[in-house]
Amino acid sequence: MSYYRHHVFFCINRRDDGSACCADGDARALRDYAKGRSKELGLAKPGGVRINTAGCMNRCGEGPVMVVYPEAVWYRYANRDDVDEIIARHLIDGEPVDRLRI
């Protein structure tokens, strides 16, 4: 068994050349929000959920993006509502959110 049931990586990469990047979509603030929500909901613990920062995952044109393991489900999200839906449906209920998948 894995140490965490779900391990979530948020790309927060910023590209200095002006090309598309996850940081353009407020990725850092939304990652912070997801971390806070997972703590509030009692998910942030061994056997639960771990929210981590990732550097560039080479999908910036589709972003901001996150990936949830062990299922390797990639998501595009735009706001707190999207993050809340991923937390509720995928991380709690175990059902990937098809409308946000990439």
Q: What does this 3D model show about the protein?
A:
- The chain has a single domain (6-100), classed as Glutaredoxin.
- 26% of the residues lie in helices and 21% in strands.
- It contains two helices and four strands.
- The chain has helices spanning 27-40, 80-92; strands spanning 6-11, 49-54, 65-69, 73-76.
- A four-stranded mixed beta sheet has the order 2-1-3-4, with helices on one face.
- Helix 1 (27-40) packs across helix 2 (80-92).
Write the layout of secondary structure elements.
Blueprint: E1 6-11, H1 27-40, E2 49-54, E3 65-69, E4 73-76, H2 80-92
Helix pairs in contact: 1-2
How does the helix and strand content classify structurally?
Answer: alpha+beta
Report the CATH architecture. Answer: 3-Layer(aba) Sandwich
User: How many domains make up the 3D coordinates?
Assistant: 1
Question: Counting H and I runs of at least 4 residues, what is the number of helices?
Answer: 2
Q: Bin the strand percentage.
A: 15-25%
Percentage of residues assigned to helices: 25-40%
Mean model confidence by pLDDT: 94
Task: Give me the strand/helix succession.
Answer: EHEEEH
Largest sheet features = 4 strands, mixed
Strand element count: 4
CATH topology call: Glutaredoxin
User: How are the strands of the largest sheet arranged?
Assistant: 2-1-3-4
User: Any idea what the radius of gyration is?
Assistant: 13 Å
Going by CATH, what is the homologous superfamily? Glutaredoxin
Regions with little confidence, pLDDT below 50 for 5+ residues: none
CATH top level label:
Alpha Beta
Shape: globular
Distance between the termini: 27 Å
